[in-house]
Amino acid sequence: MQTAHLRIKGMHFDASVRSVQSALSVIRGVADVRVSVAEREATIMYDPDKVAPRQFETAVRVVGCEVERLVVETPERFSLP
Fewer C-beta neighbours within 10 Å, C or N terminus of the chain? Predict the structure, then answer.
């Protein structure tokens, strides 16, 4: 699983939060979505083999909001000496 953080413009009310949450939750490969109107941010846990983060931007635009920033956390890699 990987995590993506979206900074969202145009999300002002509980109704828009629910719309964004619903739009992201139905994407195949998304395991969990947390949306905060106060932070204007969505955090998404997803399977990178099933979904590309750019699909999150499309889903947010469809419900009338805009992604200002998309940050994908990459898994840390450990190397042995």
Answer: C
Determine the length of the chain. 81
| Residue 43 burial by Cβ neighbours in a 10 Å radius (0-12, 13-18, 19+) | middle
For residue 33, the SS3 value is strand
**What's the CA gap between 28 and 24, in Å, rounded?**
9
Q: What is the CATH number of the domain that holds 12?
A: 3.30.70.100
Please give the residue range of the domain that contains residue 34: 2-73
Provide the pLDDT for residue 80.
54
CB 32 within 8 A of CB 74: no
Number of separate domains in the chain: 1
Task: Record the pTM.
Answer: 0.84
* Average model confidence (pLDDT) across the chain: 90
- pLDDT at position 12 is 80
How far is residue 55's CA from residue 73's CA, in Å, rounded to a whole number? 16
